[in-house]
Design brief:
The protein is an all-alpha fold and about 260 residues long. Helix content is about 60%, strand content about 0%. The protein is built from 16 helices and no strands. The longest helix is centred in the first third of the chain and has 14 residues.
Length: about 260
């Protein structure tokens, strides 16, 4: 954070953080003190030993913080991988799960077993017995395997069979992760356009039009409501973002309302 950056190099603050870690404290205090020390004072000689101790902790937050920083320091091994895989399945320290997945992808990039397990996880309606939670599996596939044909084919299958495929990836209303990872992929354009047209009453889903950027997607965004005779605010927003103002001039009333 900017606060840590401004304090980095302040020896007194580094010593205070070290004291918080070494003095008996609530695990969250020790965990965030360790995180701050590693971020602001990465050359401190005590850090490698502290991270080893943190990895052995029974507290999940302290453990995940320690393992993430071991990966960041390129000082990780198979035990770290096993811990991160376990956290990607289920963790009490939920708000650190995405950090754990990023550490997995940083420490073991393009790992074929990880990809296989993530694909297996998103194909399950629930994650009981699955290798990963849905949100962890989605993050692994989007961040670790963008534009991958096998992943795209599996996602296309979900759009062909599921009313709410976003839940399989841990997504809700915001489709940005999928759009950014698989924009324009040839295996997804047809199935996603089909799904959007079938769910045409769900105008809030039309961010997906940015994934296909197809003539069908443009037609979907410019189709006025039978009730109002105009396009919705959702359509107008993604029309401007995907095609620009020039292509959207005929819908100026909706676009102007977005500015106010």
């Amino acid at each position: 954070s900017s606060d840590l950056e401004s304090l980095a190099g302040d020896g007194d603050m580094g010593e205070r953080l070290l004291h918080l870690i070494l003095t008996p404290n609530e695990p969250p205090i020790a965990a965030y003190a360790l995180h701050s020390l590693c971020t602001g004072w990465p050359s401190n000689s005590r850090i490698p030993g502290l991270l080893q101790s943190g990895r052995r902790s029974v507290d999940p937050l302290l453990q995940i913080v320690a393992v993430c920083h071991r990966v960041k320091r390129r000082d990780c091994d198979q035990k770290d991988r096993e811990i991160l895989l376990s956290f990607a399945k289920q963790t009490p320290a939920y708000h650190w799960r995405s950090d754990g997945v990023r550490a997995l992808l940083e420490g073991w990039p393009r790992d074929s077993k990880m990809k296989k397990d993530a694909l297996q996880s998103i194909l399950k309606p629930t994650t009981r017995g699955a290798p990963f939670s849905h949100d962890a599996a989605g993050q692994i596939l989007f961040d670790g395997f963008p534009q991958d044909d096998e992943v795209a084919a599996t996602i296309a299958e979900l759009f062909q069979t599921d009313d709410y495929p976003q839940h399989r990836f841990g997504l809700n209303i915001d489709w940005s992760a999928l759009v950014n990872a698989f924009k324009g992929h040839h295996l997804l354009v047809g199935p996603v356009d089909d799904w959007l047209e079938e769910k045409s009453e769900r105008f809030w889903e039309c961010q997906l039009c940015l994934l296909t950027k197809s003539p069908r997607a443009l037609a979907f965004l410019t189709k006025p409501s039978e009730k109002t005779g105009t396009i919705s605010e959702y359509q107008a927003r993604w029309l401007v973002e995907g095609w620009g103002m020039r292509r959207s001039e005929e819908h100026t009333s909706e676009l102007q309302s977005l500015r106010h």
